[in-house]
Amino acid sequence: MSAQPILTRREWLLSDRPASRMQARLGRAYVAWRRFSANRLALLGLLIIIALLVVAALADVLAPYSPTIGDLKNARLLAPGAAHWFGTDDLGRDIYSRIVYGSRWTLYVVILVAIIAAPIGLLVGTVAGYAGGWTDAILMRVTDIFLAFPKLVLALAFVAALGPGIENAVLAIAITSWPPYARIARAETLTVRNSDYIKAVQLMGASPFRIVLRHIMPLCISSLIIRVTLDMAGIILTAAGLGFLGLGAQPPLPEWGAMIASGRRFILDQWWVAGAPGGAILIVSLGFNLLGDGLRDALDPRSGDQ
Amino acid sequence: MTAALAIDRLEVVFDRFRALKGVSLEVQPGESFGLVGESGSGKSTLLRAIAGLAPVTSGGIAVDGRTLGRGRDKAFYRQVQMVFQDPYGSLHPRQTVDRLLQEPLAIHGVADGERRIQRALDEVGLGNGFRFRYAHQLSGGQRQRVAIARALILEPSILLLDEPTSALDASVQAEVLNLLEEVRRRRKLTFLMVSHDLAVITHMCERLMVMQNGEAVENLAASDLVERKVTKDYTRNLLKASEGFVRA
Amino acid sequence: MSTLLDVEDLRVTYPTRTGVIEAVRGVSFQLGRERLGIVGESGSGKSQTGRAIMGLTPPQAQVSAKKLAFDGIDLMAASPRERRALRGNRIAMILQDPKYSLDPVMSIGRQIVETLRAHERVSKAEARERALAMLEAVQIRDPARVFDLHPHEVSGGMGQRAMIAMMLIAGPELMIADEPTSALDVTVQLDVLKILDKLVAERGMGLIFISHDLRLVSSFCDRVIVMYAGKVVEQIKASELRNAQHPYTLGLLDCMPRIDADRHPLPVLDRKPEWAA
After folding, report:
1. What's the rounded Cα separation, in Å, for the pair B107 and B99?
2. Largest CB tally within 10 Å, which of A202, A304, C72, C220?
3. What is the pLDDT of residues C120-139, one digit of tens each?
4. Is 0.90 exceeded by the ipTM?
5. CATH (domain of A224)
């Protein structure tokens, strides 16, 4: 190997002697990206999620009609056509516009749940795994109690107690989805807590809090990101389920689950009313699943070290 | 003169298994002391007990005449540091060398971090080119150098070495042993070194203790080994085994 | 000397996304019914050489050789099926850590019996008989007891002996031992070597002993091949190691601390790029 005076950007990123913190970090990200982008399906998943983001951001531009006000007189339950791509519903609202606006609510639910549930799970799991003993026993029994109930039933109970509405649905889903994250984080913590590099930090005199926060959590984050991404589909479905049962988003919010619920009455004659939001849920769920699978290959801490 | 490290009838019990059965030893300041034995002899357990990583059931450990309690305070870690056996397991897989070396400085609130990192890297012969690498971008010998730099950065007076070269190739072992001797001379360190390899211990240490099944077999000076002045059969067997295979 | 194994210009390469890694770059040697040591440091390609002869290289690796013949059989041309038949039957391999090469959920005795019955048609009773005899041959004191133990219930030395018993049961003519004693305590290491030495001598096997420990290998083997960066840098009779020519061999011999030599600092290897050329 000869030293070249001018490095291409790729060589700079892949350099095995980075000259700064930044270069080291970017190099690492680039390697992960290369591994991720080698997987076509993962790229498709990423594309779907990016499309979802774009649609949500540009809903005002993309939607030709209002999502909440329909033309009751002329446009009830029209079949898909040039004027209404996905047809209209029983209140004469354009389903395409409602789906476009509904993407915002889907993102809202998914992101809020991830922001609330993942950190709770991470914290509970790493603390339980690192502390061991009584702390571990108590935290994990609490986790078990949450895990013992079917997710939807528990979420239903919470929404019933908190009152219907999309914010409460988000809260209910978050409360019911952290336990698996806690389990993963704990399992991951148990595999690293006795490693020499954690012992070495203990020998530096680091406090347990510092060890968990700065040395253990970063190791758990990638498996957690993967799991959360794979769970996104489930979260969307739970939110849709709550919406379907009338406990999530309330009319006239164009939430996809609630749309299916209201379309159920005409499912045999006007299939598109329920079918279009159903298709949207399917595609977005698929996107998150593919993305999660790709991330699993790209971020796997075991293969990442070699 | 107070001993740098005094161990008095130390017992360690793991789940009813007596890993260490009342071992005593004293290491003088600036001395290099070796612990030799086969697996299960308790040599690593002794090291870990001193570092506070193994449960001490009875007996005492004193550093510079100060008896240690159950816990270890920050002052202890500035005085005593450790280098582990497996260079592949002792560096955090997601941290750069820079981050690894910064951590002890941050924990102890050391002000002149930049200078110390530079010095530590230069001292272990790595230089700045290695500063922002991750552990997986380093060879086994380089990793062990980073581990030594990390142990030195708090400027301790006692270094606990747990088989620091047994996972390395012979030629790399020689480099790391030379490096350890050099930093010991320069920083006037006290070494307590564990190894299964008699030759490594005789090379590195002035005095040594042979251990078996959690007990001390005998205490020797390195020169005793050179002159084959050993009294116990076990030590004699070890000596013979270290010379390689002899066809009957 | 009849040639048991003939290796000429053996190459093992691994294509990766960043380029081709050449693990073994043109290794040639011949082996009779003798003990041959292959010595080198990590990354020298010594284990890759052993695995390539055994046919155990991972599928993404490319193995090529001008000649790779075992007892006249062209291994490069042999079908996977033929190689499988050779493996275990006429060529056997011992790996470093018995923990990873023995099946953890099967008793040691059964594993030996299964190995035997996979290669020979023998009755269950006879297989058991021969397995017990084999365990005794590797100096396990209470073969009947060890027969029923699982791998995790025995010590490292015992496990390695069981592994040797399992590998020898089919009566192989060539044994490849990849760091067979590195995971063991020094005293146990010598016991295992003694057993290996006796069996090789009694059965007239060829043995390839792969190790990083030049001193150990030279005390055990008849001939030593020293590998560096995928190439053979020196072939020498073990008894004449003192007269080795190549600076790498000399450096390896010199850099080990010795009990009766006071050398501070230890001489270190000054790696020359031309060694790898």
Report:
1. 12
2. C220
3. 888 889 999 989 988 888 87
4. no
5. 1.10.3720.10
